[in-house]
Amino acid sequence: MAQMECRRCGAQRPSWLGEPHRCVGDANVSWLGFHQLTAQAAMAWRRHLLDGAG
After folding, report:
1. Which superkingdom, per the lineage (predicted)?
2. 11: CB partners within 8 A, 6+ apart
3. Is the distance from CB of 1 to CB of 18 less than 8 angstroms?
4. For the chain, domain boundaries
5. Is residue 37 classed as helix, strand or coil in its secondary structure?
6. 21, 30, 23, 22: which is closest to 9 by C-alpha?
7. How far apart, in Å, are the Cα atoms of 39 and each of 7, 9, 10, 32, 36?
8. SS3 26
9. Are 11 and 33 in contact (CB under 8 A)?
């Protein structure tokens, strides 16, 4: 699965989510909470993790 990386903070996230990255300047901070994912995208990410894809 393709990953997108923020040029400012280095945070990586799966490109299939389709949500824009809202950088907070810290790659160690969870983008699930700090990049304001929609509920639909968050549930899709959870399903992706539970399916064992990585």
Report:
1. Bacteria
2. 5, 21, 23, 26, 27, 29, 31
3. no
4. 3-50
5. coil
6. 23
7. 25, 24, 24, 10, 9
8. coil
9. no
Whole-angstrom distance, CA of residue 44 vs CA of residue 1: 14
Which pLDDT tens digit goes with each residue over 1-20? 567 777 777 777 766 666 66
Helix, strand, coil percentages, rounded to 5, for the chain: 35, 10, 55
CA-CA distance, 21 to 4, in Å (whole number)? Answer: 9
Whether residue 20 contacts residue 36, with contact meaning beta carbons closer than 8 Å, is answered with no
Does this model's pTM top 0.90?
no
Q: List the structure tokens of 31.
A: 């983008």
| Rounded distance between C-alpha atoms, residue 20 and residue 37, angstroms | 9
Three-state DSSP at 10 gives coil
